[in-house]
Amino acid sequence: MEIQENIINKVAQSGLVTLDPAQFYTPGERVVYDIKDNLFHGLILKEKDFREFVKNHDWSLYQDKYVAVTCTADAIVPAWAYMLLANRLAPYAKQVVFGDADVLETVLFVKAVASFDVEQYRDQRIVLKGCGDVPVPVSAYVELTQKLTPVAKSLMFGEPCSTVPIYKRKD
After folding, report:
1. Smallest Cα–Cα separation from 32: which of 98, 91, 82?
2. How far apart are CA 31 and CA 45, in angstroms?
3. Over the Cα atoms of the chain, what is R_g?
4. What is the pLDDT of residues 70-128, one digit of tens each?
5. Cα(165)–Cα(129) distance, integer angstroms
6. What is the pLDDT of residues 154-163, one digit of tens each?
7. What is the mean pLDDT of residues 20-33?
8. Rounded CA separation 160/155 (Å)
9. Which H helix or E strand runs over 61?
């Protein structure tokens, strides 16, 4: 007696479209510039010394890099100091943000998602992939949700075989 079993791939038949937020990852080197190294005794920023540093530092080291400018020391740093750094980095860096590495990653993802055309996903049942090799900030999922909700038939999070429903249009 021969038993023939047909395996049916229900995921493939479901009509779900998987969108991997990792596709919005911006490749390139990331650098955090910590102004704490410019503080006198780790406490205060001396304007004259800081301006001398900014004038003489080789800013070309940041060529084509994504730079986050921050201060991890418990010190009061005037806004002009960050502005001065941004001004010197601008000709070299691809992007300069105020904040840490997480803020930098968020800004890069948000910019990439902003230019994303969602029309190809109109009336689709979309799954935003939940895991992968590239860490995706929560902010990217929020941005994608905002962009996709007006056009999607439904929006889910996870993998096609195990999803968490986020939105379903009532027709």
Report:
1. 98
2. 21
3. 23
4. 999 999 899 999 999 999 999 999 999 999 999 999 999 999 999 999 999 999 999 99
5. 12
6. 999 998 888 9
7. 96
8. 11
9. none
Q: What is the DSSP letter of 2?
A: -
Q: How many residues would you count in the chain?
A: 171
Cα–Cα nearest to 71, from 39, 119, 27: 39
Closest CA to 70 of 41, 38, 114: 38
> pLDDT grade, residue 10 (50/70/90)?
very low
Q: For residue 127, which phi and psi values (nearest 5 degrees)? A: -115, 120
CA distance 168 to 154: 4
Neighbouring C-beta atoms of residue 46, cutoff 10 Å: 13
SS3 state of residue 114: helix
Q: Which residues contact 66 (CB under 8 A, 6 or more apart)?
A: 26, 28, 29, 30, 31, 93, 94, 95, 104, 108
CA dist., res. 27 & res. 44, Å (int): 35
Task: Provide the token pair at 91.
Answer: 């000709």
Contact 33, 70 (CB under 8 A): yes
Q: Which residue has the tokens 């895991």?
A: 131
Q: Which of 104, 29, 33, 105 is nearest to 64 (CA)?
A: 29
Question: How is residue 65 written in tokens?
Answer: 């890099």
How confident is the model at residue 150, as a pLDDT? 95
Report which secondary-structure segment, H or E, holds 145: helix 138-148
